[in-house]
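Fold this: CinA-like protein
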Amino acid sequence: MNAEILAIGSELLLGETIDTNSAYLAQQLAAIGINLFRKSVVGDNEERIAAAISEALGRADLLICTGGLGPTVDDVTREAVARALQRPLIFHQHLLDQIEARFRAFGRPMPQSNRRQAHVPEGARIVENPRGTAPAFIVEDARGTVVVLPGVPSEMRYLWENAILPYLRDERGETGVILVRTLHAVGLGESVIGELLADLMTQTNPTLGISAKRAQYELRIGARANSRADAEAMIAGVEATIRERLGANLLGAERLDQTVARLLRERGKTIALHEGVAAAPLYHALSAQKDALAALRGVIIHPADIPTDDEAAQSLARTGAVAVRHQWRADVGLALQPSSVIAADGFATMCVALAHDGGVNEWRRRFDMRSEDVWDFAGTMAFDALRQYLAAL
């Protein structure tokens, strides 16, 4: 079974509300082995919702809609589903009785607008909602199955777990599993990683996807199988190939900051920092990890007082790394110093130095200073250098 999710509500398009329902449903579908091919959002417009439903049923076996089941005039999901499936809306007295009873429990009279919620498309399976006034429903159509859930997250999750999930497992036989494992890599560009793993990325099962985050890369391996053990075995095979091809650039399940923190702890090393920029990306990244913060002996944040070209920036990084190491008697001193010479294209050089018992290691790389993530990129370069040094001990 292949699925799509359609989140309904103009508030989602306006950015006023974050669509957490789709993320939850995506995880739930993966847990029972249903492939999710698309997630869409549409506003509170009957014609557009109906069109989105019809289009989705042309691609998917299962469509899950959330939202638009309230009592107000802009809640038109019921009407849109009926329109897309060419079925009339049918009134159900027992649903109205349940809605009225809920209002009585609150000690309030039911507004007449709530009567709309007692209508569902003809032939739909009603899913009663003890957590709210909007019943859900399932329509099994020749083109596919449409599951319609309220948009209130707590109600949606309750109905999914107690009604829709049992329906898919017990009646539709969806008992497989989709597992995802995320690995982290650094030190290679996204395009280089893509070339090294191109054949793995064209597979349909298991799958491999790459996403870039501040010069660090997430490799997501997904496998669909009839059992968790089978899916894990498929993922393990892909992971072994990735490890072989990326070598030391593959961190594994840890992020770079987690790896550095672990290595500092395991090697029993202390560290001091020199930051030549007020943003202090090294300290902010290091202090986010408990083990790394425990290893930190001191930090100097001192932007250059005078303009510095590339060579001057490298010299400042070198002397800074040595100075903080000796000042705080740390095992290693790590320094980051940007050049103040910014080229016409917006790029400037970042210099890194790592002082240790054996001397000083140095690196430099150019970054786009117009990027709001430039200091995170520079921090990644510095911490990857530290990681490689610690790993080799």
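The chain has a mean pLDDT of 94. The chain has three domains: 2-171, 177-252, 256-391.
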